[in-house]
UniProtKB/TrEMBL annotation:
The species this protein was found in: Quillaja saponaria
Binding-site residues, Fe cation: 116, 141-142, 214, 240, 273
Family, as annotated: Belongs to the myo-inositol oxygenase family.
Obligatory cofactor(s): Fe cation
GO MF annotation terms: inositol oxygenase activity; iron ion binding
Listed GO biological process terms: inositol catabolic process; L-ascorbic acid biosynthetic process
Free-text cofactor note: Binds 2 iron ions per subunit.
Principal location listed in the UniProt entry: cytoplasm
Localisation: Cytoplasm
Protein name (Swiss-Prot/TrEMBL): Inositol oxygenase
EC number: 1.13.99.1
Chain positions recorded as substrate binding sites: 46, 103-105, 145, 162-163, 240-241
Catalytic activity annotation: myo-inositol + O2 = D-glucuronate + H2O + H(+)
C-alpha cells in the first residue's frame, strides 16, 4: 500500500476528504496523503454507523466500555497494573503472545494483532526510512493488548481496546457512540461532568487520567523499563487511541506546550496505524531481524510487565 506524506507541517491539522469507498481505490487527502478508500470489508475506515454484523459487535463493545470506564475504575487499574509484577518477558515475546487475539472494537480489522503491528511498522518504514524510533513505535504501540491474556487476568475487551478519552471531566460528543455514557455513573456526578472537571486549563495530558486500556498500560511498561525511545514515541504509545483529540480536536484545553509538539507526530503516526490495516500478510521471519535490532537499541532484553 502507499501512504504518502509530503511534509510534516502541511499535514498538521489537515482534515480528510470523505469520498465513498466504491468511487475509488485511493482517496487523496489534504497534505498530500494517499490512503486506501476502503477497509478489508469494503467499507470506509472508522465508519461506526454502517449496518453490519461486525458493527453490531463493535457497538456493543462501546456500550460496555462507556458504562464501565469511571474515574475510580481507572485509578484502581493504574495502581494495580502499575506494579508491573506479573511477568518478565522481551518485547518480541510479547508480540508473539498477541498472535491469538482479535480486537472486538475494531471495525476495520479482524486479523491477529501481530499482523497489525508489523503492517503499521513496515508502512512507516517505507515512508520514513530514517526514523527508526518511529518504526519501533509502530511495532510496540498495541502491545498493551496483552492485558487480554490469562497471565494478566484476562481483562475484558472493554478494559483493553477501543478509543480512549479522559475521565474526571465531561465526555466529549465526538467520542464514538457517546450516548452510552449516559449510563456511566460519572455522567451525573458534578465533580466529573464539567468541561474541566478535576483538571485545569493547559494542565498537560500527563496529569489527565485517560480511560484504562492498552495505551496507558504500554506507556507505563515502556517508561518504567527505561526505554530510550524519544518523548514523541512515548506520547504516540500513550495517546494513539485518543481519536477525540487527534482526529476531532477536542480536549485541546487540557494540553500543554509539549503535548502540542508531540501531537504533530501522533497525527502522522495515526495514518499508518489506521490505513495499513489490510489482508496483506507480512513475512514475519523476513522482517524479524530488523525489528530485533531496534528492540535491542531502545529496550532492555527483558522487561517487567
Ligand atoms: O478499535 C481500535 C483498536 O482498539 C486500536 O488499537 C485503538 O488504538 C483504536 O483507537 C481503536 O479504535
Ligand atoms: Fe491501539
Ligand atoms: Fe494499532
Amino acid at each position: 500500500m502507499t501512504i504518502l506524506v509530503e511534509q510534516l507541517d502541511s499535514e498538521i491539522g489537515a482534515e480528510e476528504k470523505k469520498v465513498p469507498a466504491e468511487e475509488t481505490d485511493l482517496v487523496l487527502l489534504d497534505g498530500g496523503f494517499v490512503v486506501p478508500g476502503a477497509n478489508s470489508f469494503g467499507q470506509t475506515f472508522r465508519d461506526y454507523e454502517v449496518d453490519s454484523a461486525r458493527q453490531k459487535g463493535v457497538e456493543e463493545f462501546y456500550r460496555t466500555n462507556h458504562i464501565n470506564q469511571t474515574y475510580d475504575f481507572v485509578k484502581m487499574m493504574r495502581e494495580e497494573y502499575g506494579k508491573l509484577n506479573r511477568v518478565e518477558m522481551s518485547i518480541w515475546e510479547c508480540c508473539e503472545l498477541l498472535n491469538e487475539f482479535v480486537d472486538e472494537s475494531d471495525p476495520d480489522l479482524d486479523e491477529p494483532q501481530i499482523e497489525h503491528l508489523l503492517q503499521t511498522a513496515e508502512a512507516i518504514r517505507k515512508d520514513y526510512p530514517n526514523e527508526d524510533w518511529l518504526h519501533l513505535t509502530g511495532l510496540v504501540h498495541d502491545l498493551g493488548k496483552v492485558l487480554l491474556h490469562p497471565i494478566f487476568g484476562q481483562l475484558p475487551q472493554w478494559a483493553v481496546v477501543g478509543d480512549t478519552y479522559p475521565v474526571g471531566c465531561a465526555f466529549d460528543e465526538s467520542v464514538v457512540h457517546h450516548k452510552y455514557f449516559e449510563e456511566n455513573p460519572d455522567y451525573n456526578n458534578p465533580a466529573y461532568n464539567t468541561k474541566y472537571g478535576v483538571y485545569s486549563e493547559n494542565c498537560g495530558l500527563n496529569n489527565v487520567m485517560m480511560s484504562w486500556g492498552h495505551d496507558d498500560y504500554m506507556y507505563m511498561v515502556a517508561k518504567e523499563n527505561n526505554t530510550t525511545l524519544p518523548s514523541a514515541g512515548l506520547f504516540i504509545i500513550r495517546y494513539h487511541s485518543f481519536y477525540a483529540l487527534h482526529r476531532a480536536g477536542a480536549y485541546k484545553h487540557l494540553m500543554n506546550e509539549e503535548d502540542i509538539e508531540n501531537l504533530k507526530w501522533l497525527k502522522i503516526f495515526n495514518k499508518y496505524d489506521l490505513y495499513s490495516k489490510s489482508k496483506v500478510r507480512i513475512d514475519v521471519e523476513k522482517v524479524k531481524p530488523y525489528y530485533l535490532s531496534l528492540i535491542e537499541k531502545y529496550f532492555p532484553a527483558k522487561l517487567s510487565w
